[in-house]
Amino acid sequence: MNTYVEELIEALNLEVISEIQTDSRLEQRRKLPEEILVGTMPDRLKRLLGSEDLTVWEHQAKAIEHLTNRRNVVVSTGTASGKSLVFQIDAIRRLSSDTSSRILVIYPLKALASDQFGRWKRLVKSIGIDESIVGRIDGNVPTYERDATLSNARILLMTPDVCHAWLMRNVGSGPVRRFLEGLSLIVLDEAHIYESAFGSNVAFLLRRLIAAKRKATRGDLKRKPFQCIATTATVSAPSEHLRLLTGLDFAVVDEEQNGAPHFQRRILHLSGADYGAAGEAAVADIVRGIMDLPKRRRFIVFIDSRQGVERVVRSIDNSSVLPYRSGYEAEDRERIETALRDGSLHGVVATSALELGIDIADMEIGVTLGIPQSRKAFHQRLGRIGRAKPGTFFVIAPPAAFGRLGLTFNDYFLMPVEPSNLYLGNRFIQFAQARCLLEEMEVLGADMASLPAGVTWPTGFGEILTSARPGAARSREFDFIAQLGADAPHFNYPLRQVGESSFDIQEGARNDPSRIGSIAVNQAIREAYPGATYLHAGRAYSVYEWRTSRGERAIRVGASKSSAPTKPILRKQVNFSLQADGVIDGRVMSNETGLLAEVYVQVNESVEGYRIGRTTKMYRDLRAENPAMSRKQRDFRTTGVVLRIEEDWFRGSSEAQRLVREHIAEGLRDLLSSEFGIAPFDVDSASTNIGLLTASGPARLTDAIVIYDAVYGSLRLTEPLYDAFTKYLARLGRGASLAGDEAMVSNVVAERLCAWAESLTPAGTLNVSHIEVPDGWRLVYKRGSIVGIYRNGVLFEREILEPALVELPGAAPALYYKYPAPEGGSQYVPHEQIERTGQDWAWELWNSETKEFRDIETDD
Fold it and tell me: What top-level class would CATH report for the domain 770-859?
């Protein structure tokens, strides 16, 4: 099979490390339940199925049987197994029996919704129903068209994003209320994608949608019942995942009942670099090789780097190959999607944005650079090819890439997929969602004395809801989130991030720029920092400045003649505390030479400059000539696992000791990501610039590593590392044996770690110092401290000059700090508005009467 593979291997001198071949499988069919074969349904189904016998695959019939018995259903079978037919048949059943019924189909990605929109229209037309009953509302549809679409559609396709930002924001309007009243079916396609920050936000959105539905029908769900269908090819424990996602119970139809046939596939591990210039060059060579084959064979390439996608396509320089990633404007996405559907594109190079995207029947070849971020992602990418004929999939990675994880290629392929992680206890997600729910229930006239009935709400949400009410007392930690939401929480709290401000990408003159895209701050400091070469939709731009004044958050760029890549110089500073309020639920284990703990973590990331080739440009040098060339940063609070070992092989400031800590930190992070399918950008590690928060301020450590959630407020993704620490150490040891010199850590280091961990026992309460503040004195930031101040949602660093008490009308004197203003002179900031960022700050004592200062003295 697939003899062109040998042609590619020979022509490009490819080294095959390992190969897997999957067998084909014959179909198993079963007749549809008699309960739905009434009225016009038999004739419509014969036209839909293209046969007279009214049989479908085994799993499809079983799912429809559950639906006729009024159960919510999750269909969890492999890619290309016809899961969509289940909800299509049920939708036709509802349309045929109830003219007032409305169906909401939620697709997680615009590309998928756009592709399925045409399929839905063709489907209803084929069975004799006017295709105008199918409507689509996503970010591409102008707002002035949405009410009419909502009123006319009986089948409505939406992304979660527009459901949250538009539908629920307008839940009090007539068209929305009428739609909710008739809503009888919610379809969640590709449900496994709902994980991490995005999935956790969507979990609250779905509960809010159900609450609004109940209110629109005045709680009479017997008169206006609704059900939910979910589909997924790659999720573990589907029933539990859907219960967490929706607050409802589900019947499961899984792979054991799958009656669909499938084609053979060849899956090859090719030797090569898995990232950077060498990896991207290898991808470009393979693409050129595919395009040189005697017969046209369509392909899709996956790269987990937005800028890497752009660089590869520029290198190929062929109009029949285009890039696809997030951050494009609607017209750019539509142009690429249309070209994929009509066959004018030979292939596409994409990020994970097309993992669930357009289904192209003749897509034969898939390529992924590096091991995908999860086994779920791997199987989704694999599922893009071989849908109507045998297919081939290449994984480009170093020979020891799987061995480093303590696995073989076959182990990786056969292992079950990871759970789809939801952490519904994230207090910042809860606060943002509470703000939205309160607005929705207010316009619907609901009594919010208690949480809306009908679904199970996450633990702690009721308390957060109380603090989110207008005028309610709230913890200071919610101030920044509250400011981001302002008076438009549905619009200002996007589903795909938590607590991150976003920037428009603008091209043109300062006084008349045009918007070409958008980017979140955590991506901007890596891709669109001042001076960077930023690639967008196949074009190269120079980044001129960040604009954060007058309520504006924008990054201004201009067309660049050069596409020479730039690389950011990033600095991470990580702080944690071992005081009682710094440790999560007392989760500390210790021995004579160290400890393991799950803790609350504060992370500061900053871009200090950038490199072009061998030239280094630091902002501290550039800013004198161009003030726009200044460092940018993000600061967030999260959770993580800290490991401290006070032994010479681990502790110290030598290069060898630093490398040991770095390799252990990166190895544990990569194993955690691999084991649980955590996206690489959702978990990170630090082995330097780690500070222990003491009574007097941060103390820098050389005996610690931290693996932490890179998500604002934490999704508690590193919790399993604490719970199963010895298991991960064993995996590091197996990786050392399998990968040899390419292992994450050496055999010697792995053995030392395992030996050290054997004596860990629960530590109970740790002895930590605390501050004694004498009468008449105040605890203040030490003069010369570098602290953070938020302006328009963007963090700026300022130096504390001195404290001051400021008289305020009708109130007690308030503590302020004087700091130098960027434009000259000085300004003052209240104590409560200061953010403790980085490690260049400390406490001291100040007597406001005598103007004396005193260093901190602590009691152990």
Answer: mainly beta
Enter the tokens of residue 666.
């990166």
Q: What value, to the nearest 5°, has the Cα angle with vertex 643 and ends 637 and 647?
A: 145
User: pLDDT tens digit string along 358-379?
Assistant: 678 889 999 999 998 788 889 8
CA dist 625 to 270, 447, 466, Å?
48, 59, 50
Cα–Cα distance for residue pair 64/91, rounded to 1 Å = 11
Rounded Cα–Cα distance for residues 823 and 370 (Å): 47
Integer angstrom CA distances of residue 571 from 70, 367, 452, 526, 568 = 55, 33, 45, 11, 9
Distance CA 541, CA 517 (A): 12
Q: What is the pLDDT of residue 767?
A: 67
Report the C-alpha gap between 480 and 431 in whole angstroms.
Answer: 11
- Determine the 3-state secondary structure of 605 from DSSP: strand
Do 358 and 112 contact (CB within 8 A), yes or no?
A: yes
CA 198 – CA 495 distance, rounded (Å): 5
Pick the CATH number of 4-23+263-414 from 3.40.50.2300, 3.40.50.1970, 3.30.950.10, 3.40.50.300: 3.40.50.300
pLDDT class of 2 with cuts at 50, 70, 90? low
- Check residue 357 and give its pLDDT: 58
CB-based contacts of 458: which residues, under 8 Å, 6+ apart? 203, 204, 424, 425, 430
- Contact 302/381 with Cβ under 8 angstroms? yes
Q: How is residue 521 written in tokens?
A: 């701050």
Q: Fold identical between 4-23+263-414 and 770-859?
A: no
What does the alpha-carbon distance between residue 635 and residue 659 come to, in Å, rounded to a whole number? Answer: 26
User: Nearest to residue 404, comparing CAs of 685, 745, 687, 669?
Assistant: 745
Is the per-residue pLDDT at 158 higher than 70?
yes
Task: Report the alpha-carbon distance of residue 767 to residue 588 in Å, rounded.
Answer: 12
Residues 480 and 636: beta-carbon distance below 8 Å: no
Name the token pair of 216.
């629109």
At the top level of CATH, which class does the domain 30-257 belong to?
alpha beta
pLDDT of 285-318, one tens digit each? 999 999 999 999 999 999 999 999 999 999 999 9
How much is the average pLDDT of 756-764?
91
Burial class (CB in 10 A: 0-12, 13-18, 19+), 655: exposed
Return the domain boundaries, the chain.
Answer: 4-23+263-414, 30-257, 502-562, 570-762, 770-859
Q: What is the pLDDT of residues 604-614, one digit of tens each?
A: 999 999 999 99
Contact residues for 819 (Cβ-Cβ < 8 A; gap 6+) = 789, 798, 799, 800, 801, 826, 827, 828, 829
What are the start-end ranges of the H helices in 444-550? 461-468, 479-485, 489-492, 521-527
Q: What is the mean pLDDT of residues 571-600?
A: 94
In the chain, what percentage of residues exceed pLDDT 90? 65
Most confident of 235-244, 294-303, 474-483: 294-303
Is the pLDDT reported for residue 127 higher than 60? Answer: yes
Q: Which two tokens stand for residue 213?
A: 């539905």
Least Cα distance to 167 among 518, 485, 491 occurs for: 491
Chain position carrying tokens 């207008």: 470
Going by the DSSP 8-state scheme, the letter that residue 258 receives in this structure is -
Euclidean distance between CA atoms 497 and 277, whole angstroms: 29
Instruction: Work out the burial of residue 615: count CB atoms within 10 Å of its CB; fewer than 13 is exposed, 13-18 middle, 19 or more buried.
Output: exposed
Taking CA atoms, 694 is separated from 172, 768, 770, 810, in Å, by 51, 8, 8, 36
Res 680 pLDDT > 80: no
